[in-house]
Amino acid sequence: MDKYRAMAVFVQVVESGSFSAAAGKLGITKSAVSQQVTLLEQDVGTRLLHRTTRRLNLTEAGETYLTGCRQMVEAAEMANQQIGQFSKEPSGTLRITCSHDFAARQLVPLLAPFMERYPKLSLYIDGSDQAINLVEEGIDLALRIGPLIESSLVARKIGDLPLMLVAAPSYLEQHGVPQVPAELVNHQWVAFTQLAQPYQLNLQGVQGQRHKVRLYGRACSNSHASTLEMVVSGMGIGRFFEQDVVRKLEEGRLVQLLSNYRHEPEGLYAVYPHRAYMPLKVRTVINYLIENRAALGALG
Fold first, then answer.
1. What residues contact 81, with CB distance under 8 A and at least 6 apart?
2. Which of 30, 78, 100, 300 could bridge to 23 as Cys pair (CB 3.0-4.6 Å)?
3. Among positive and negative, which fits the CA dihedral 279, 280, 285, 291?
4. 26 burial class (0-12, 13-18, 19+ CB within 10 angstroms)?
5. Can you tell me the distance from the alpha carbon of 38 to that of 28, in angstroms, rounded to the nearest whole number?
6. Class of the 163-263 domain?
7. Fold agreement between 3-84 and 163-263
8. Over the stretch 30-87, which tens digit does the pLDDT of each residue have?
9. What CATH number belongs to 3-84?
10. Domain 92-159+268-296 sits in which CATH superfamily?
């Protein structure tokens, strides 16, 4: 038995939550994974995992042993990354997750020249509108909007995404143009439910006065594209990132509202698992995104 390989397999089983998931990540069979763990338990002379038909649980000995195994795996990863610094060229598969709309509109076009620059790098994008477990899914980097919730992850700010209020000319002709934030309560609101506070606006006037407005959501969606189309179709007023509506403003399909009032921008963050050493491919792409934040609609 290669004890160090078995220790690495044990760590993967715990992080993946099952033998099957670990086998998929490691590219080996489920039986091979089970055999490695069994041989490891025989070698250390104690059971590391409680196995049931539905889940795995660490034994007390397994919890203690896991700490050392993780340190071994991280040390090996660090050594591999450090030796890779001599080539100064990222390689391997870069796995990124972000919302489907953001990936299609901003991220993919921006990463095309990045991938051309680094031919030894492969790319996988998980276009998911739901936050996923980066460690369990083997994701290197997540692009998320808003504050970081998971304390076990590390976040680096790329920039701020400016917001604006817009409505279709047809809607404004029928319902009038609001001149101050308080008038918004009398209007129909189209809410993008993925935002932290889809039914509340926090605005700041030119003299610093703050306005908090609670809105009535006549229409809503968890799809950015659907929400935008609702507003373009005249269903109500909506709040969007500036980058997403600039073309429709130029075409006259949307009109900006309350331009004298400032929205608190949403932060765009690069989020990655906390590790002792950041892989070269992750550090390189984060620096690239920061350098090209304008293409993502973000302000520095």
1. 277, 279, 280
2. 30
3. positive
4. middle
5. 16
6. alpha beta
7. no
8. 899 999 999 999 999 999 998 876 778 899 999 999 999 998 888 887 777 666 655 5
9. 1.10.10.10
10. Periplasmic binding protein-like II (3.40.190.10)
DSSP 91: -
Q: Would you state the pLDDT for residue 149?
A: 64
- The residues, ordered by sequence, that sit 6+ positions from 130 with a Cβ below 8 Å of its Cβ are none
Q: How many residues does the chain have?
A: 300
> What digits encode the pLDDT tens for the residues 10-30?
999 988 888 988 888 888 998
pTM of the entire predicted model:
0.67
Give the whole-angstrom CA distance, residue 291 versus residue 284.
Answer: 11
Beta strands in the chain (DSSP E): 49-51, 56-58, 92-98, 121-127, 141-145, 153-161, 163-167, 189-192, 200-204, 210-214, 217-221, 237-241, 255-257, 262-263, 266-273
Q: Which two tokens mark 126?
A: 């998980």
End-to-end CA distance of the chain: give it in Å, rounded. Answer: 52
What does the alpha-carbon distance between residue 155 and residue 240 come to, in Å, rounded to a whole number? Answer: 23
As given in the structure block, the two tokens for residue 246 are 């600039």
Q: What is the pLDDT of residue 145?
A: 83
DSSP string, 145-209: ES----TTEEEEEEEEE-EEEEE-HHHHHHH----SGGGGGGS-EEEETTSSSTTEEEEE-TTS-
Strands 217-221 and 266-273: unpaired
Of 152, 134, 136, 132, the residue nearest 22 (C-alpha)? 136
Radius of gyration of the chain, Cα coordinates, nearest whole angstrom: 24
